[in-house]
């Protein structure tokens, strides 16, 4: 059984030159958002972003007048709305480039319409929710972290975190649900431009998971996006399945 996301009053802009894909997206989002706008090329898409200020943008990379990567950068210069990219590319470096250009999430074709709707709903909810990262308490799957008092616990038992582990959690929870590339997270924690980001993070994420996860071999707090990076929160396939 699949749980459908709650309907919101959001406006979503779908940028795709293929009518068939736009129809699929419209159908997937029919019960999730109030209004869906269309754009078939980069020029009209950017004009719609400026004029209509959509709450979320779905961007397909195969556009006739410019690259999806360039359009992603241009949109991000004018809007803070979440950008969910539709891509048929499976190359990790392409996904990393998209996230570094300002995309918030990506869905690889072919995709499940129910998972796609759940991702869109999650991104809209994230954008409308106050981001806790610098203070207050963050909770996930029995783990609780208070950044004001610098105290953490798992099921009521205190957890001792190193300064680096605190910094990793602070960075990830600053924008829950967002995928951070290895380099983005490395830069946020170490604030320097040299070093092997994956190697540094692999060691510290492994140690952090031993402390905050119920089962470090099946993480639900710090989620790996293979070849790309990490996100904070329960995986989407666990959120939408019942």
* Strand segment tally: 12
Secondary structure category: alpha/beta
Give start-end ranges of low-pLDDT stretches.
Answer: 236-242
Assign a percent range to the helix content: 40-55%
Provide structural commentary.
With 242 residues, the chain is of the alpha/beta class. The chain folds into 2 domains: 11-128, Rossmann fold, CATH 3.40.50; 137-239, Orthogonal Bundle (Arc Repressor Mutant, subunit A). It contains 9 helices and 12 strands. The strands form 3 sheets. It has a 5-stranded parallel beta sheet, sandwiched between helices. A 4-stranded antiparallel beta sheet has the order 6-7-8-9, with no helix packed on it. Helix 1 crosses helix 5 (113-128), helix 6 (163-173) packs across helix 7 (182-190) and helix 7 (182-190) packs across helix 8. The longest helix has 16 residues, at 113-128. The radius of gyration is 18 Å and the shape is elongated.
């Amino acid at each position: 059984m699949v749980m459908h996301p709650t309907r919101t009053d959001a406006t979503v802009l779908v940028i795709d030159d293929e009518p068939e894909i736009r129809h699929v997206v419209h159908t997937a989002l029919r019960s999730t958002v109030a209004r869906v706008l269309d754009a078939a090329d980069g020029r009209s898409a950017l004009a719609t972003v400026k004029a209509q200020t959509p709450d979320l943008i779905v961007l397909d990379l195969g556009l006739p007048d410019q690259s999806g990567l360039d359009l992603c950068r241009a949109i991000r210069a004018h809007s803070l709305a979440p950008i969910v990219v539709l891509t048929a590319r499976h190359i990790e470096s392409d996904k990393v480039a998209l996230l570094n250009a300002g995309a918030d999430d990506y869905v690889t074709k072919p995709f499940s319409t129910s998972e796609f709707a759940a991702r869109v709903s999650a991104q809209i909810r994230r954008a409308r929710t106050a981001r806790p990262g610098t203070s207050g308490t963050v909770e996930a799957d029995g783990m609780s972290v208070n950044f004001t008092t610098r105290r953490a616990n798992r099921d009521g038992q205190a957890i001792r975190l190193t300064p680096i582990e605190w910094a990793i959690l602070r960075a990830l929870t600053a924008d829950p649900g967002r995928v951070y590339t290895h380099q983005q997270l490395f830069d946020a924690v170490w604030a320097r431009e040299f070093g092997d980001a994956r190697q540094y993070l692999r060691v510290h994420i492994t140690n952090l998971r031993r402390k905050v996860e119920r089962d470090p071999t099946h993480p639900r707090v710090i989620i790996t996006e293979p070849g790309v990076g990490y996100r904070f929160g329960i995986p989407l396939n666990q959120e939408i399945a019942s």
